[in-house]
Amino acid sequence: MNQRQNPSQFEFESESSGDNLLWEYVQSMNPEIIEKLSQPTPEVAQLMEHNLAAMLGNLPPEHFDVKITTSREALGQMLGSAMMSGYFLNKAKQRMDLEKSVHKTNFHA
Questions:
Q1: What CA–CA distance (Å, rounded) separates 78 from 20?
Q2: Fewest CB within a 10 Å sphere: which of 22, 50, 55, 109?
Q3: Same structural domain, 60 and 73
Q4: Are 85 and 104 members of one domain?
Q5: Range of the domain at 25
Q6: Are 26 and 34 in contact (CB under 8 A)?
Q7: Is there a contact between 48 and 39 (Cβ–Cβ < 8 Å)?
Q8: pLDDT by residue (tens digit) across 68-106?
């Protein structure tokens, strides 16, 4: 079927193919690492919450009974978007912390 050009390159294939290297990699990871990667920092979680509220509407629940109807596909797309935003924000937070650390090190050197 698909020939691998580079064994270290992850392929995105259907789950039924049994040859999903990314899924195999995630399954081989230490559970503690997966747990750490799965939990955003409080700042990232707050930004994600604001992002989702903006997508869904930001009416205060104490005054409005908001009901949202959507398709399974649209909900999946929104979830995927929220996850990608979370990963992006988490990486941006890590970069910001690294830049602060480097700045402090250069300032004190």
A1: 24
A2: 109
A3: yes
A4: yes
A5: 1-39
A6: yes
A7: no
A8: 888 999 888 888 888 888 888 888 888 898 898 888 887
